[in-house]
Amino acid sequence: MSNRRSRQSSSALRISDDQMIDLVSQLCQLLPEIRERRRSDKVSASKVLQETCNYIRKLHREVDNLSERLSQLLDSVDEDSHEASVIRSLLM
Amino acid sequence: MQPTSSMNKEFLKKWQMGLQIFRPSIDNTSVSERKRAIKLSADVAMASLRKGTTCWSRALIQKTASEDNFLVRQMLSGIKEETLINKKLPKVMCHRKIVRRSKKILMRRKSRSAMEEVAAKAKKLVKRKTQGLRNAVPGGEFMSNNVLLIQETLDYIVSLQTQVNVMRSIVDAAAAGIER
Q: ∠A45-A32-A54 over CA atoms, to 5°?
């Protein structure tokens, strides 16, 4: 790592510093796509960022789907039924 | 960083509170209105876990308040975060057109080696992906530097995971309870 950094610092552009490297590796830990790869595989910064965006959007979609499902479940239940009280006890 | 069970519990409690606020009208509403209430209260519950300490959570509370001011006020009433509802977020936006124009001028004057070209392209790519991330994280446009952006992203992802896990458990349990 330090070899690469000293080579990079001699070029005109330095994309990451210590803190960024650490943060990006923390991101890698969170992303299921990247965590499951072999340790020896190197992942570029832009790939990590892309996967992060994809993952966040995927989580947004899941929340949306779950909200929809829950709303429909509440709809399908007869107000006085046993099922309604199950849901009520879970949610309310 | 992982979602903890105390985070799960706290999220569930706050989300339940939000749903209770909506409860009186729950029987007279359409599926889509109910879905909206479920989702908005889940978002406020998730954001309020952070007690105003992160940029994304403040931005999310403000955004949700603009969609349903009453619900957010009720959920946050008596809590410190209530003051966030009308607070103006700081504007830290760079004027991209001006930066882009001055960069173009600079670039025309330099002649670059092949290696510099590659490095420049890589940097551009990272910049574009970073911008994509700013769009995905609430309040991203106000995060003035990339270090802050990634720190906020890490926290936001863990919070989203909490939200999804708890919601999924509840929905699965409710579905199982009904089918029985």
A: 60
Our CA-based measurement puts residue B19 at a distance from the nearest CA of chain A, in whole angstroms, of: 7
- pTM for the whole structure: 0.79
**Structure tokens that stand for B37 in this block:** 């209430």
Among chain A residues, CA nearest to B171:
A70
The CB-side HSE value for A12 (13 A sphere, CA atoms) comes to: 14
CB pairs A-B closer than 8 Å: 136
Is A2 a domain residue? no
Could you tell me if residue A70 is inside a domain? yes
- Closest alpha carbon to B151 in B7, B64, B60, B53: B53
Q: CA B79, CA B102: separation in Å to the nearest integer?
A: 47
Nearest by CB to A67, from B38, B129, B153: name it. Answer: B38
Considering the domain boundaries, does residue A10 fall inside one? no
- A69 found inside a domain: yes
User: In the numeric block, which tokens belong to residue A27?
Assistant: 């991101």
Burial (CB count <10 Å: 0-12, 13-18, 19+), residue B37: buried
Instruction: Tell whether ipTM is more than 0.85.
Output: no
92 residues of chain A, pLDDT tens digit each: 455 544 444 333 344 578 878 888 888 888 887 777 766 667 788 888 999 999 999 999 999 999 999 988 887 776 667 767 767 777 66
